[in-house]
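Next comes this protein:
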Amino acid sequence: MEKEGFVSLWVGDVQSSEELDRILVVSYSDEGDFIPSIFAKHFEIHRYDDAVREAEYYEEASNDLNQLLEGFSYDDKIVPSYNKLVQEELPDDINTVVLLYNFKYTGEIVEATIQSNYLRFLGTVEYK
C-alpha cells in the first residue's frame, strides 16, 4: 500500500543480477494498465511506484544489515531503524536487497521462493 514517508524492505538469495532484474520488471498493457512484476505477484502487491524502488544484488553474500543497506537512499535513517526492528540474526546467504519507498507493506506473505530465488520481507520503517 502506497504510504508517503515509509519504506519496506525485502532481503534474500537470488541467483544473479539478471535474475533480480527479471523478477522486478514491471510493465504496462497497451491501455496503460499496470502489470505487476513477478516479485509483486508473489507478495500480492497490486501496485507500487517503480520509480521509488531500489534494489541491489551483491556478488558476495552477507548477513550484516548495516553493510547491506549502506549507500541506499536515506541510509542514515533506515539503517538504525531496521537494526531496532530486526532482532534476529539474518542468514549468511543474503545477496539481495529490495526497498520500496513510499510504501507500507501490510500483506500477510512474509517469504516467497520464486524459481530457486528466495525473498523475505523484514519490515517497514519511516524514513522521513
